[in-house]
Write a structure and sequence with these properties.
The protein has 147 residues and is an alpha+beta fold. The chain has four helices and nine strands. The longest helix has 22 residues, at 125-146.
């Protein structure tokens, strides 16, 4: 059973998704509770590979209300749990020109918190306009079918 906790809405608009991945994330206990209560934000969030490890940066997790922590950094870099074979696969895909890692969503799956990220290629302005036209046409078709 999957439940989307946080979603990066701009990711699919700004990037053409080439290949999706799913990984666990290293969190503190109060961060898990905060995410499950809707205290997360993925705006401006991105994924990087450093020293053979995958990290997610600028994922904002608000402090948990009932936490007793004095010092807490809400946008600290967090490690993603990805196998070495997948890391090599991702690194190979990143060697292409204009390709980057994009964080898509944070989900709760079977009691675990997971991050969905993808290898994506930045879309040009005319591609974005084209996708907006397709969405608009689809919406109009749905309206006509309803009536």
């Amino acid at each position: 059973m999957e439940k989307v906790l946080v979603k990066n809405r701009k990711a699919t608009f700004d990037y053409e998704i080439l290949q999706k991945f799913e990984a666990g994330i290293v969190l503190l206990g109060h961060e898990v509770k905060s995410l499950k209560n809707g205290g997360g934000q993925m705006q401006g969030c991105f994924v990087t590979i450093k020293n053979g490890e995958v990290w997610i940066e600028h994922l904002h997790i608000a402090p948990y209300i009932k936490s007793t922590l004095d010092v807490y950094e809400p946008e600290r870099p967090r490690k993603l749990l990805v196998s070495k074979a997948e890391i090599q696969k991702i690194a190979g895909a990143l060697k292409q020109n204009g390709v980057t890692l994009v964080a898509l969503s944070c989900i709760a799956k079977n009691g675990l918190i997971k991050i969905e990220f993808a290898v994506g290629k930045g879309m040009k302005k005319y591609d974005k306009r084209e996708s907006l036209k397709k969405k608009d046409e689809k919406r109009q078709m749905q309206r006509q079918v309803r009536y």
